[in-house]
């Protein structure tokens, strides 16, 4: 039976807000691709695709510039509104880093001491996180290397994370002049215990992929090193469980002679992402064989827990982070940006606290006392 009242408009609408001007292939950039969906036997499925959004700034550990942030927003908007896209893969170029956060060179040389400008930038950053959390397709973070600071935050905004076992995870904010308020203070308590979330936020320790798998931050840690044509687990990390002084040391980094031996073995290996991508394709295929409407409803039902605190706090955090660009962020980002000239990447924290205790104004003389000096 058919019902015909008025002629139907058969022209398909384009619901994307952005054009392709925000994407590129020359670093630093964000790359947007639609790759064909393949089944477990590698057969291409006609008419269906997977969107790949790739951070492309490998010389700076895929830290995102302002233009790259716009590219990520445009990519997720395009993928979300594309009927032929089954899922989104968020990843980066190379094998060293997924992302280390905002581009510290840009922060130090442009945004520091320009709080209004940084506030405008934070509006874009917030929209980038929003674009991930509101994407109408499942989002998989393919962690190809270190996921630190803002990189950790945009990674946690994704729905699922599958990781190279060489990847490391953590925050950098309190050590380098900021606070992990771009998502980590909102998301980490949902993934980890409250104390683990607290320590991860404030300690700036770097944790292995295996430790994060054990604690529930990621779904899989996949070997990517090949030695004599066989895959081996990350030799720098303890991947068997044993107890030392009452603490489980699974996932901790080796030290001493064990680390030295692991470093020597690493030098004889090649990085190969084929196992990682096989697992990635298996996840995508599983998602493909679900009702899409039911799938995204279930995903958004889980996402909303992360979104709740993110939405409550992002505006206030935006204003604090902007104001902070005139004080501690100015010091932290400039110390990090000049580390090749000074040999240090942080300020003199003890002297900083002494000057605060003396009630000193944060003027140029104050900054001069605590910033590292040229070699």
UniProtKB/TrEMBL annotation:
This is 6-oxocyclohex-1-ene-1-carbonyl-CoA hydratase. InterPro entries: ClpP/crotonase-like_dom_sf, Dearomat_hydrolase, Enoyl-CoA_hydra/iso. Coiled coil: none annotated. Belongs to the enoyl-CoA hydratase/isomerase family. Keywords: Hydrolase. Transmembrane segments: none annotated. It comes from Candidatus Fischerbacteria bacterium RBG_13_37_8. Its EC number is 3.7.1.21. The keyword Zinc does not apply. It comes from the Bacteria. The keyword Hydrolase applies. GO terms for molecular function: 6-hydroxycyclohex-1-ene-1-carboxyl-CoA hydratase activity; hydrolase activity, acting on acid carbon-carbon bonds, in ketonic substances.
